[in-house]
Amino acid sequence: MPKDRNPTRIQKKNRATILEAALEVFSTSGFRGATVDQIARAAGLSKPNLLYYFPSKEAIFTELLSGLLDTWLDPLRAIDPQGDPLEEFLAYVQRKLQMSRDFPRESRLFANEIVQGAPRMLETLSKDLKPLLEEKADLIEGWMADGKLNRTHPKHLLFSVWSLTQHYADFDVQVRTLMGDEDPFDAAPAHLEQMFRRMLTPAPKI
């Protein structure tokens, strides 16, 4: 769709429909396995109609990833340097877990892209995620140096949060099969809080 036109309500609706359909297809089949025909069918549009809004599968995928990464960075941005260090970090863990509960398809889409070597977002990772990670790792390092958090490697600590929270979305079928009738998100918040609280609470000063 031409960039210099003001989209109508119908055009906005169709773009949103296409992106929603693409999210379902990409999160299930990955970029390589997905086709424009599949996305068009899922959106209830003809292929030519879809291509009016997005010239290629790549263009749809890129727009999805762009919006996803910005959403994915919000919990990390929200860590407040002025807050209580332990409570700020534990709140971050819970925000990440809630995102896995609320946005499982988005998490799987992101994971699929990373597993494939991030060919469509490597530059974005370097430009957007890396500086933010450095900023928050420095903040956590400062809290540790001040004795407000138990010392560990700040970046690996953040990687651990990502692994332990996004696992519930990326391996949803496995987790739910093994948990049976129990919703994994019922006990996960308390489990993760207990684990990270014990890990990061400084030892009492004698």
UniProtKB/TrEMBL annotation:
- Which stretches make up the HTH tetR-type domain? 12-72
Instruction: Give the keywords, sorted.
Output: DNA-binding
InterPro entries in the record, alphabetically?
A: Homeodomain-like_sf (IPR009057), HTH-type_TetR-like_transc_reg (IPR050109), HTH_TetR (IPR001647), Tet_transcr_reg_TetR-rel_C_sf (IPR036271), Tscrpt_reg_YcdC_C (IPR013573)
Q: In the UniProt record, does the keyword DNA-binding occur? A: yes
Q: Which Pfam families match?
A: TetR_C_3, TetR_N
Query: Can you tell which superkingdom this protein's organism belongs to?
Result: Bacteria
Q: Which Gene3D superfamilies match?
A: Homeodomain-like, Tetracycline Repressor, domain 2
Gene Ontology biological process terms from the UniProt entry = negative regulation of DNA-templated transcription
Q: Where would one find the signal peptide in this protein?
A: none
Q: Which residues bind DNA?
A: 35-54
Q: Could you confirm whether the keyword DNA-binding appears in this record?
A: yes
Q: Which GO terms describe its molecular function?
A: DNA-binding transcription factor activity; transcription cis-regulatory region binding
According to UniProt, the name of this protein is Rut operon repressor
Gene designation: rutR_2
